[in-house]
Amino acid sequence: MSSPANKILVTGGTGYVGGTVLDHLLKSTEASIRGLSFDLLVRGTEVAEKLKESYGNRVNPIQWAGLSDPDAIANIAANYDIIVNVGSGFVPAGAKAFVDGLARRVKPAAPKPWLLHIGGCTNLADRPLTQESFPDREWDDADGGAVYEFLRREDEREPYPQRTTEVGILTAAEEAGVQALSLNTPCIFGEGTGLFNKQGIIIPVLMRYVVGHGHGFKLTETSNFDWVHVEDLADVYVLLLRTILEREDRGVGYLPSGKTGIIFPAVGRALQTEIMQRCLDAAFDAGVLPREDTPKVKEIRQVPLQEIANEITAGLIDMAERGWAGNKAQKGTQARKLLEWNPTRLEAAWKQDFVDELNALKDGRRGITMESCVGKKP
Ligand SMILES: NC(=O)c1ccc[n+]([C@@H]2O[C@H](COP(=O)([O-])OP(=O)(O)OC[C@H]3O[C@@H](n4cnc5c(N)ncnc54)[C@H](OP(=O)(O)O)[C@@H]3O)[C@@H](O)[C@H]2O)c1
After folding, report:
1. Which residues contact residue 156 at a Cβ distance below 8 angstroms, ignoring those fewer than 6 apart?
2. 6 falls in which pLDDT band (50, 70, 90)?
3. Core vs surface per residue 69-102: b (16+ CB within 10 A) or e
4. By the 8 A CB rule, do 147 and 181 touch?
């Protein structure tokens, strides 16, 4: 049961990341977590029923209208000590409303409320096709303040919803005395362990492109992605929660928060062209490619940005450029140092993922689009 200082709300429980985070929280055998129940914001009675059937009284699904109703969100958020906000990170006003609600709990003698958020590495990316290129830039979360300042200035220059959201919650939290930390997350791979969406976005989308077209694509030679397995990422949220619950200071002053509150859960790094090559290798090795109407050798073609945006990033040209052309190198040191995070799905798991994703696509388990991830699913 939740004690008075650990009423916890989780968003995104139907998603790839959120479902896996919830699953890891519920499976945790740690003393600080194993007795807890989690309130979950969900849309739809079927979803709520399935969560109850599977997880019993460890979960309490609560219906909400979604991220488009800030007043309602703030009223809900005001009831919690800790919010794990791992649904879509692309709706700035909706996410800030969680901070506004938590701010109502900030009182001198009360435990400081926490918001644990998810952002994405495209927030850091350059736009080498339409703006200046920074192919050698690497950010280190050891200096979260510098990362925050960069994100804030970039977003002032050119707003990008996922970044506006991340900067918005960190800024509002700092001003309101709420503790807030964002995991600015690289490419997430591997099968999710939640009850609903178990598939990632980036590798499934690229694999589908390669199998559909018979060739890979590139927008630049230098575009890169760091990567993390979804279960290793979920472990970071578990460790963060444990830190807040187990430490005397509830992580206040220990975990970065507000204007320094950014952690990169990054494990490995790959060029976009290498990712394409791995998709091609998996498809050629399995005999899925070549087909009669596709190139007989493995080919990574230069393609126009607009074509890629239309086909794989819900028409969002800036997101396509940041994702598939941009540099967004992340050096993740804080999670290992502060949380003793020890990711276990390394190079071998990353390589295996391309084989697994091809099989999932062949089995019809990959019906993905970007719409839900970017908060555009009604
Ligand atoms: N996947 C990646 O590789 C990756 C990489 C970096 C960062 N991220 C970050 O992680 C976030 C979650 O990604 P994901 O892969 O877990 O996406 P996902 O599987 O598509 O899940 C999205 C979740 O957000 C919820 N949601 C979507 N639109 C909403 C809205 N308008 N109002 C309320 N809830 C809404 C969905 O709930 P319903 O079921 O109610 O629609 C679902 O629980 C992304 O936004 C992004 O910021 C992901």
Report:
1. none
2. confident
3. ebeebbebbeebbbbbbbbbbbbbebbbbbbbbb
4. no
Give, as one character, the DSSP assignment of residue 179.
E
Q: Which residues line ligand 1 (CB under 6 A)?
A: 12, 14-18, 43, 66-67, 87-91, 118-120, 162, 185, 187-188, 197, 200-202, 372-373, 375, 377
Render pLDDT for 126-146 as a digit per residue (tens, 0 to 9): 999 999 999 999 999 999 999
Over the stretch 315-329, which tens digit does the pLDDT of each residue have? 899 999 999 999 999
Distance 369 CA to ligand 1 centre (A): 11
Query: Which region among 14-28, 90-104, 148-162, 350-364 has the lowest average model confidence (pLDDT)?
Result: 350-364
169: left (phi over 0), alpha (psi -120 to 50) or beta: alpha
Task: Tokens 């187990």: give the residue.
Answer: 246
Q: Whose Cα sits closest to atom 48 in ligand 1?
A: 120
Q: Which CATH number fits domain 8-200+227-267+329-344: 2.60.120.260, 3.40.50.720, 3.20.190.10, 3.40.190.290?
A: 3.40.50.720
Name 48's Cβ contacts closer than 8 Å, sequence gap at least 6.
42, 61, 63
